[in-house]
Amino acid sequence: MTAVIDSCFDGGNIRRLQSDDATQIRLAIEADAGGEFFQWFYFRVTAARASRFQIIIENAASSAYPAGWENYNVVVSNDRTNWYRLQTEYDDRGLCFSVDMQSDVLWVAYFTPYSLQQHDNLIGRISSCDLVSTHVLGHTVDGRTLDCLQIGENDAPLKAWAIARQHPGETMAQWWMEGYLQRLVDGNDAVVRELLKQMVFYVVPNMNPDGSYRGYLRTNAAGRNLNREWSSPSVEHSPEVYLVRQKMHETGVDFCLDVHGDEAIPYNFIAGTEGVASWNEKRQQLQETFKHNLQRANPDFQTTVGYPVTPAGRANYGICSNYIAETFNCPAMTLEMPFKDTELSPDLHHGWSAERSALLGRSCIEALYSIADHL
User: Which residues are catalytic?
Assistant: First the structure.
């Protein structure tokens, strides 16, 4: 049976190249709209059980972040529920791994996918809980709804925002949202009960549903990198940022987390907003306290490795956390998680995973609680 490769589904991305070798499958990742970025892949292999193939993604070296392939292992599943890692090599041929078919179907992805159907299921589950209201902020370039969940009362003195998947291929960010939201609606959680006395939460679980569906790494349907649009978004090209920013100006912001994944760095870390003009000692202390207590709550997080600190006054206000920190004079942080295994606490079978992302989301509630009285 000849192997069939398919990516014509929600989040799928791959293109098959011609090959005369029946045991070798040659592939290429398709670029996002605009052609500048590609790295996300997600496809299905259908072949006879017990057959063996070598799969090569040949354009890996030309991808947006080729350093992301070093010490990286692909994620696979036989049922799209249980995902695990396969040993992967990166060399002059591309990204290479061997597949032994344990059933007739195997799914292969850059990271555990999070489909729009899963997103709708999440919205449905959380919306049914007490103190939750769901808002459609508007529509994306492709006409999809942009969902925002509100947890808590409108008149709460503090407004805490969290957004994820500005970059659609960073699916760990929406798995993080699973843990964060599930904890926020747990009426038995004493920390959450105390937080809801002080603040209302606004949560956008998926900022880029168009890019998510199209199988993009970094852009929306108009080819815009949303995390460079915050200083001047447009209804035509970046309505997702325009709409969320509009809602933020309506509610105010006292704290914001923008959740992402990093291709190359095998650690969980926070990128702060030290480069904004209004940076001060209080905000520095709040950021350090948040990071310290997140590390105490979840040792998968660390504070040593991350991006270089932006020099004072050199912030790019097209970036979400910088724009929010400066505009609302509040702590705003970018949380990054790895596509690879984390070197701090490796798991050879799963690597950094959907489940661990969700647990980190839960732990961020503890870290926020530690600074809530000082916001």
Answer: 336
CA nearest to 54, candidates 112, 14, 100: 100
Mean pLDDT in residue range 76-94:
96
Q: What is the pLDDT of residue 19?
A: 81
Q: Which fold has domain 116-374?
A: Aminopeptidase (3.40.630)
In this predicted structure, the answer to whether residue 1 has a pLDDT above a threshold of 90 is: no
What's the Cα-to-Cα distance from 90 to each of 58, 62, 95, rounded to whole Å? Answer: 10, 12, 5
Taking residues 115-123, what's their average pLDDT? 98
For residue 67, the 8-state DSSP code is G
Phi, psi of 334 (to 5 degrees): -105, 120
Could you list the beta-strand ranges (E) of the chain. Answer: 4-6, 15-16, 24-28, 42-46, 52-57, 74-77, 84-86, 88-91, 94-100, 105-109, 132-139, 145-151, 158-164, 199-204, 255-262, 269-271, 332-338
The amino acid sitting at 270 is I
Least Cα distance to 181 among 171, 192, 172, 169 occurs for: 192
Do 37 and 218 touch, CB atoms closer than 8 A?
yes
Residue 171, phi-psi category: left (phi > 0), alpha (psi -120 to 50), beta (remainder): alpha
Is 141 buried (19+), middle (13-18) or exposed (0-12) by CB count in 10 A?
A: buried
Instruction: Select from 239, 244, 237, 204 the least CA-distant residue to 223.
Output: 237
Residues of the chain with CATH 3.40.630.10: 116-374
- CATH number for domain 4-109, candidates 2.60.40.3120, 3.30.1330.10, 3.40.50.11440, 3.40.910.10: 2.60.40.3120
Share of the chain above pLDDT 90, in %: 97
* Structural Rg of the chain based on CA atoms: 21
Q: Mean pLDDT, the chain, as a whole number?
A: 97
* pLDDT > 80? residue 235: yes
Give the model confidence (pLDDT) of 162-183 as tens digits.
Answer: 999 999 999 999 999 999 999 9
308 and 291 in contact (C-beta within 8 Å)? Answer: no
pTM more than 0.85? yes
Mean pLDDT of the 22-32 span: 95
